[in-house]
Fold:
Amino acid sequence: MKQFKGRVVVPGTCTAEALVSHGGFNTLASYQMAMMFGDKQVKCGDQNNPDLYKKPMIGKALCLPQTIGSTTGGMVLFTVCSHGKQPACMLFSLPIDSLAASGAILGDVWTDSKMPVVDSLGDEFLQYVQTGMTVTVGEDGLVTVEE
Structure:
């Protein structure tokens, strides 16, 4: 077990299975196919992200360095939350960008979906956490990772 302290972007608590990407997360490419065709498991559609491609994202603790790609990223996160298809939480090793932050915050404020977001967890976080580990997010931005 190891703990990491980050900055709370969207408050909340959760415990979920980790889904880890060591590359940037292209929000639009990751969610577009699942949202367009009603994929209930919300499998990642980003062919350029081998860590996540074709893996279900709904209800997972997405562990990422950062988001990349289109300026639509914030709206995609909001839309995912408005349809109840969001990950359990989003955890970033680096600071979150303003577009992703705005989408996550709007999802929290304007929908009933809960998706805690914590950023600035550090490089060691992504070196330690592996897909399948259990991740617990606390209200204070403390993230606990267990095998």
Observations:
- The chain has a mean pLDDT of 96.
- The chain has four helices and ten strands.
